[in-house]
Design a protein that fits this description.
This protein is α/β, with parallel strands linked by helices. The chain has helices at residues 2-6, 12-17, 19-22, 28-37, 49-59, 92-103, 121-126, 138-151, 178-181, 194-197, 203-220, 266-270, 274-277, 285-294, 306-311, 347-357, 369-376; strands at 39-43, 63-67, 108-112, 130-133, 154-161, 164-170, 229-234, 239-244, 282-283, 299-302, 318-319, 338-341, 363-366. The longest helix is centred in the middle third of the chain and has 18 residues, at 203-220. Bound molecules: zinc ion.
């Protein structure tokens, strides 16, 4: 009751704006004021974060924190509806804040232009009451889960891949956590990312919206939160399934004898982006082979001519002949690690310098090109 009294009041504009909430007995004036006083953190202003942030702002959550350090890429626009074409090349937080301010000027958007890490997660998350995880990688997912459990916060989980998505609420005080479900991340490289495997653009709209609903229910304390339940949505079949999740008494984080009492080095543990972040500009074929085997997130850009590809090629490489780079720049992501290859490593060096001049920031040159790959890594790739 004292919390309700301390919730901020609504002005005349807000009373009109939130009319359809105010007439819901489950929300009403007290609930709307509670929403206005709420602080929700959204990790990632991407596919899941986009619909979640839009709906939470529209609903009147008073303070929305957004964590993201990415720049809008043209490939994001197929699903990340916070951002428009004019924002390509600009920070996601910038376009997100502008869109949300236009949608609802009564919401304070706090931009955390940083990568969530073991060094900042506890302090950052500690400033919010509910966390919505819209991350697209295991390292961040475990980091958010662990930090929330250690801080006693609930995390609204969501994940998507191809045509399937899932959502749950992990609140270690009231039910299982993510580690009760998956104690450890899959071996690096075992699970392809959406960048590799694709994702239906509308799918994060369904899952991110479910996450927004759960966040609002948690703030208002209404309904049945998704605690102890995992909802799995199959877009091709248009079917929702529900799995019951139980708290694992042996969970290393929230079990009866926890071994995880502080945040870990998630990048090393999950085989996350750390390896490619520390990669030198010149990469040897053996380093590239190791990075690919680990499943490191990188894009291989082959700048050779089509006839050369007919002779020898590497699986998964994006092909843009050197001479067409200027007109096809929009197909490449500016911040993802890009390893450029050609026949012997000379054209790729020129391509790297060109891309650097175009504002690309994570560029690597494959020393010795595909010829070195044939000689040192895979003799099945023909030499020419
Ligand atoms: Zn657990």
């Amino acid at each position: 009751m004292s919390e309700r009294l301390s919730s901020p009041s609504l002005d005349a504009h807000e009373l009109r704006r939130y009319h359809r909430h105010l007439i819901l007995p489950e929300v009403g004036m007290a609930g709307q004021r509670r929403l206005k006083g709420a602080r929700v953190l959204i990790v990632g202003a991407g596919g899941l974060g986009s619909p979640a942030a839009l709906y939470l702002a529209a609903a009147g959550v008073g303070t929305l924190g957004l964590v993201d350090f990415d720049v809008v890429e043209v490939t994001n626009l197929q699903r990340q509806i916070l951002h428009g074409s004019a924002a390509v090349g600009r920070p996601k937080l910038e376009s997100a804040a502008a869109r949300l301010a236009d949608l609802n000027p009564h919401v304070a958007v706090i931009r955390h232009d940083t990568r969530l890490s073991r060094d900042n997660a506890l302090e950052l998350i500690g400033g919010y009451e509910v966390v919505l995880d819209g991350a697209d990688n295991f390292a961040t997912r475990y980091l958010v889960n662990d930090a929330c459990a250690l801080l006693g916060r609930a995390v609204v989980h969501g994940s998507i891949f191809r045509f399937e998505g899932q959502a749950s609420v992990f609140d270690a005080a009231r039910g299982p956590c993510y580690r009760c479900l998956y104690r450890e991340p899959p071996p690096p490289g075992m699970v392809p990312t959406c960048a590799e495997g694709g994702v239906l653009g509308v799918l994060p709209g369904v899952i991110g919206t479910l996450q927004a609903i759960e966040a609002i229910k948690l703030v208002l304390g209404i309904g049945e939160p998704l605690i102890g339940r995992l909802v799995v949505f199959d877009a091709l079949a248009t079917r929702f399934r529900e799995l019951t999740l139980r708290k694992d008494p042996d969970c290393p984080l929230c079990g009866t004898h926890p071994t995880v009492r502080e945040l870990q080095d998630y990048d090393a543990w999950c085989g996350g982006p750390a390896a490619t972040e520390t990669m030198h500009e010149d990469v040897t074929v053996t380093e590239l082979a190791a990075a690919r085997a680990r499943g490191d997130e990188l894009v291989l850009l082959d700048v050779r001519e089509p006839f050369e590809l007919e002779i020898a090629r590497l699986d998964g490489a994006v092909h843009v002949p050197m001479r067409l780079l200027p007109e096809r720049l929009g197909e490449l992501e500016r911040t993802r690690p890009l390893v450029i290859l050609c026949h012997h490593g000379n054209r790729s060096r020129v391509a790297l310098e060109y891309l650097r001049g175009q504002g690309f920031t994570n560029l690597h040159n494959l020393k010795g090109g595909i010829d070195a790959w044939s000689l040192e890594v895979d003799p099945a790739v023909p030499r020419y």
